[in-house]
Amino acid sequence: MGNPCQRCGACCAYFRVSFYWAESVPFLDGQVPPELTEQINPHLVSMKGTLSAPARCVALDGAIGDCVSCSIYPNRPTPCRELEPWDEHGQPDEKCSRARAAHGLPPLEPIVPHTPEIVDPLRTGTD
To answer: Which of 2, 15, 3 is nearest to 97 (CA)?
Structure first.
């Protein structure tokens, strides 16, 4: 199926991406490039481009709904790491669906978890 996020990017151009400031401080082992953030308050920063509408994260490359990528993917902040396209039951995540709708994209289809076929060890196949 592949990762639908690599074709979408709607969340990156819909939500404010705010997180604890230390995630962007290199000497505190922060991974987010500080030049891509802006201060919100003494405790929070956000990714540039996401504080006001229309939002679009400075790290988002490509066309929404077609082919996108994150220029800092290995170093993305916590909110980006935590947002998933599906919930734990395989249903489209509400936040993902809301962002997609704002860009005229349909919600993702539910996914059916793969369940291995149950084999009866007593059955020999000679019914």
So the answer is: 15
CA dist 70 and 89 (Å) reads 26
The number of beta carbons lying within 10 Å of the beta carbon of residue 10 is 23
For residue 112, what are its two tokens? 């059916």
Alpha-helix runs per DSSP H in the chain: 78-82, 94-102
Spell 69-90 as b/e; 16+ CB within 10 A means b.
ebebeebbbebbeebebbeeee
pLDDT, tens digit, 9 for 90 and up, residues 81-113? 999 898 888 999 999 999 999 999 999 999 876
Rounded to two decimals, what is the model's pTM?
0.81
Rg (CA), the chain: 19
| Inter-CA distances, 38 with 2, 42, 89, 123, Å | 32, 11, 35, 64
